[in-house]
Amino acid sequence: MKSKVLRTGATRSNRPEAVQFLADPRHYPHHPRSVKIVETHFAWIFLAGERVYKLKKPLRQASMDYRTLALRRRACQAELHLNARLAPAVYRRIVALRRTRTGGLTLRADAGRVVDWLVQMRRLPAARLLDHAIGARRVSDRDLDQVMTRLGAFFRRARRVPLSDRAYRRQLGGEIRACARELRAPDLALNRARVREVTALQLEWLACHGPALRGRGRALRDGHGDLRPEHVFLGAAGYPACVIDCLEFDPQLRRLDPAEEMAFLALECARLGAARLGRDLLERYVEGLQDRIPPAVWAFYMSRRALVRAQIAAWHLRDPEFSGQLHRWRMRAQSYLDDALRLILRANALTTYADRDCKERQRGDTMRLRPASARAEGRPAPR
């Protein structure tokens, strides 16, 4: 999974050659006035006028492997194909970065051997990305309707990859345990007691309240995988609402319940101070897809995504490019762990309340079936 939008931790002097080349506006065929560079954990992004170019780092992380030219090309092709599902007008083509006979780099298609691959995209107005719009308090009901129309259509037609209820719960448990192992690593210097508490409570919820997830395994889709506000475009004149930057490198990480994807979006909206907006999106999801989700399941899914985000934040602690930002990323990981704890406690409370309410209703039904004289005397109803 990917972390967006991060300022570069590298200075101009120690940037890779390709990054230095792509930082220069003179090297682009459309001659932008300037180039702004954004660095993520797995890529360099170049905002060059009305176009955007993305260069993947030659890294390996868990199931993601970009170490060879062939693997990076394959990943670029997958990114182009998969993002066409939710942002067909944004993702344009794959562009080769080439080495000329004289040793220089070029974006010309007719010169030199290929040394790397770039994804070329249409640049969207940043002010209409959901995270920016939340900050400016400029999100309307119409904006949310347009986004959910796009997402609803996507969830309906996305390829189904179902699991049985038992297999789904087993998969969730395995993923929670894997996160726990990574986050308890001594070199990360995170609060290991908090990691144990959060993951133990999540596993306990699965064990005790797993039936609340009945049928959710059948809902699994090949989804977006990274549904955050910075990836949601609200639309503008000539630019329809869309969702960008899906997780392309691992189909297993995209194999998600649409409700979990929406829970993730709601979590991130809340972290930006827009919890009400996140709840509005969840309500639109329920109404649009007629998918009734118990409140405890929303809370569990949000807690689970917060744990995954803590893991991703912790990855930056091992990246030399972010060596000057260790405090920032450690605090970010801890913040997500705090959210994960708060939300799993809420899930447990909601499920306990629901169970108690159900039992009280069952007792009430039983009492109503007993004759009045039997109820008055405390005798059982006749069979």
Mean pLDDT: 89
Distance between the termini: 59 Å
The first-level CATH class name of the largest domain: Alpha Beta
Low-pLDDT runs of 5+ residues are 1-11, 361-383
| Beta-strand content bin | 5-15%
Name of the CATH architecture of the largest domain: Alpha-Beta Complex
Count of individual beta strands: 12
* Count of alpha/pi helices: 12
- Any idea what the radius of gyration is? 24 Å
Q: What is the 3D form?
A: globular
H-E string: HEEEEEHEEEHHHHEEEHEHHHHH
The main sheet orders its strands as 1-2-3-8-6-7
Describe the overall structure.
It is a single chain. The model is unreliable at 1-11 and 361-383 (pLDDT under 50). The chain is built from twelve helices and twelve strands. The strands form four sheets. Strands 1-2-3-8-6-7 form a six-stranded antiparallel beta sheet. A two-stranded antiparallel ribbon has the order 4-5. The chain has a two-stranded antiparallel sheet with strand order 9-12. The protein folds into two domains: 12-123, Phosphorylase Kinase, domain 1, CATH 3.30.200; 130-360, Aminoglycoside 3'-phosphotransferase, Chain: A, domain 2 (Alpha-Beta Complex). Helix 4 packs across helix 9 (275-289) and helix 5 (165-183) runs parallel beside helix 10. A hairpin with a 2-residue loop joins strand 4 and strand 5 (64-65). It is of the alpha+beta class. The radius of gyration is 24 Å and the shape is globular. It has helices at 17-22, 69-83, 130-135, 141-157, 165-183, 192-209, 251-254, 258-271, 275-289, 295-315, 326-369, 372-377, and strands at 35-39, 43-48, 51-56, 60-61, 64-65, 91-99, 105-106, 113-122, 221-222, 232-233, 242-243, 255-256.
